[in-house]
Amino acid sequence: MKLEDHHMVQCETCQSIVNFIPADIDEVPTVLSIAKCSKCSGTIEDERRILPYEFPDILI
Questions:
Q1: Of 18, 41, 49, 54, which is least surrounded by CB within 10 A?
Q2: How confident is the model at residue 58 (pLDDT cuts 50, 70, 90)?
Q3: 56 domain-assigned
Q4: Which domain holds residue 18?
Q5: What is the CATH number of the domain that holds 41?
Q6: Long-range Cβ contact pairs of 28-37 (< 8 A, separation 24 or more)
């Protein structure tokens, strides 16, 4: 199951799940956010721009 070994990328505006990013073996999967996705007037570039949060154990 992807939720057990992937980070989830979610749109903050519409709460849609946009993508899954593989997590390292040592990482705990978490939810990463983007400002807006292509469904809520964003672009593909917006979907690639993950909002910065301080997660010292996650390297993206």
A1: 54
A2: low
A3: no
A4: 2-48
A5: 3.30.1490
A6: 28/57, 29/3, 29/4, 29/5, 30/55, 30/58, 31/7, 32/7, 32/8, 32/58, 32/60, 33/9, 34/9, 34/10, 35/11, 36/11, 36/12, 37/11, 37/13
